[in-house]
Structure formats: structure tokens, C-alpha cells
Design a protein that fits this description.
The chain has 245 residues and is of the alpha+beta class. The protein has a single domain, classed as Aminopeptidase (3-Layer(aba) Sandwich), CATH 3.40.630.30. Helix content is 26%, strand content 28%. The strands form two sheets. Strands 5, 6, 7, 8 and 9 form a five-stranded antiparallel sheet that branches. The protein is globular.
């Protein structure tokens, strides 16, 4: 498939793209949209507009988007990965502190166009934008989208490689090919709690047995507690570090 000619804009320069960006079809399963910490970051998208990229095809349709977040770092990579980035970015914004670290939040491609090379283009644009904003490296709590078996530990899956030495996971492979270095696992990168009724609504599954439940597109089991009427999804991600030259 030929590489699409994209027009990639910074949202701060094209605020008119905010509404079309949100209206574009999402590739994420419903349960992934209910992370309470992440939703706090997305509610403040306009405050992070310098770090949001929107890609349009030659007809002007939004086909991809990329979010990153600046924050005041603590020196070491943290266990709470994606949630931790969102939390720290919002805290830095509210406190008025000067950010010294930047991390990817999301790169998403319109359904039907995944696997066509757009993710590579968006990652390159995100790295370039981080450099434009004065950062020398970009962190990323990567969600390895090729992981199909929730029971396999991320500490095992993330380091599986092909014969050519590149990661088995396609999204990790994009990052490594772009110069990223896999550093460590973020074991509780994303935490999504909900009542059993909410999880039934999000997934269409019965959620009528206690213990681990395998949900399509989840990277780890969802843990169900019938007695207390809730289920919790704790997703591990993989920290990748990109140097920006």
C-alpha cells in the first residue's frame, strides 16, 4: 500500500480542527475510553494544543491524531506509565511549573488505514514537534497492540523478538525502527474501574463470574468482584525512550 500524503498540523495552529478531530472515527474499544485519569487530560486538550497533532488526507479528512504531554519529571520512569503521564501533565499545568519532560499519550489511526504506514509518519511528526518545543527526548508508555493473549505477562511479551532482532509486536517495532529504546515495563500504566453494569455496557459480556475475565482487545485480564459489584482493568505498558537529535 503506498504511503499516504498527509498534511499534519499542530492543533494550536489549526484550532478549527478540534471538532473534526473528535468527530473522527475512533479505533479504540469502548472500555478504553473510560480511564478516569486519561479523560482529565483529554478534557484539557485545548490547553495542550501545542502538543496535539492532527493529520488530514488530501481531501481534508482527519485520518490520524497524536497527543503528547509535557510535565515536570522526577528523574526515573514510573510504574503508573500512561496514567502517570496524564496526572503529572495536568498537575504541572495547574501548578504553573516549567515542564522538563515530554511523553507520548496516543497515536491513533482511522480504522481501515491501520498498517498503512501512518503510525510511522505520526511518530516522526511527534518526535519533531517535541524537538520544536525544546525537548531532547521523547518518552512513550507504549501499548503493544499485537498482544492477543491477556494471560501472557507483559514482561515476557515485550521482549520477544523476530529473527531480525526487532520486536515481535508491530507497534513496538515501529518505535524501535524510529530509534526508540525499550527500557522497562509500566505494570499499572492504565487503571480502568467500573461497576459490573458499566463493564457489561462497555463490552457486551455478562460479567457474572468472579476472578479474571478476558475482554477482547485487553492486554491483561479484567478482575471481577461480584460481592462488591465492581471490576478493575490494570493494563501494563512498555516504556520506550526516544532521543531527539
Amino acid at each position: 500500500m503506498p504511503v499516504m500524503d498527509l498534511k499534519i498540523s499542530v492543533l494550536a495552529d489549526r484550532p478549527d480542527l478540534l471538532e473534526p478531530m473528535w468527530e473522527a472515527e475512533s479505533p479504540w474499544p469502548e472500555f478504553m475510553t473510560h480511564d478516569p485519569v486519561g479523560n482529565l487530560y483529554y478534557a484539557l486538550t485545548e490547553q495542550f494544543a501545542d502538543y496535539v497533532l492532527v493529520a488530514q488526507d488530501p481531501d481534508g479528512n482527519v485520518v490520524a491524531k497524536a497527543f503528547s504531554a509535557p510535565f515536570k519529571g522526577i528523574g526515573e520512569l514510573f510504574d503508573d506509565g500512561w496514567d502517570g503521564v496524564c496526572r503529572r501533565a495536568v498537575r504541572t499545568l495547574v501548578s504553573g511549573d516549567k515542564p522538563d519532560t515530554i511523553s507520548a499519550i496516543e497515536i491513533s489511526i482511522k480504522p481501515g488505514l491501520q498498517g498503512s504506514g501512518l503510525s510511522k509518519q505520526m511518530l516522526a511528526a511527534m518526535r519533531a514537534n517535541a524537538g520544536r518545543m525544546g525537548f531532547t527526548e521523547l518518552l512513550a508508555p507504549v501499548r503493544p497492540n499485537g498482544k492477543k493473549d491477556p494471560s501472557v505477562p507483559m514482561s515476557e511479551y515485550a521482549f520477544l523478538v523476530r529473527e531480525d532482532g526487532l520486536p515481535v509486536d508491530p507497534w513496538l517495532r515501529v518505535h524501535v525502527r524510529a530509534g526508540g529504546r525499550i527500557e522497562r515495563i509500566a505494570p499499572r500504566s492504565m487503571v480502568i474501574p467500573g461497576t459490573l453494569a458499566e463493564w457489561r455496557e462497555w463490552t457486551g459480556l455478562p460479567f457474572d463470574t468472579p476472578g479474571p475475565v478476558h475482554v477482547p482487545f485487553a492486554l491483561a485480564p479484567v478482575m471481577v468482584d461480584l460481592q462488591h459489584d465492581h471490576a478493575v482493568y490494570v493494563e501494563p505498558n512498555v516504556w520506550v525512550r526516544h532521543q531527539i537529535l
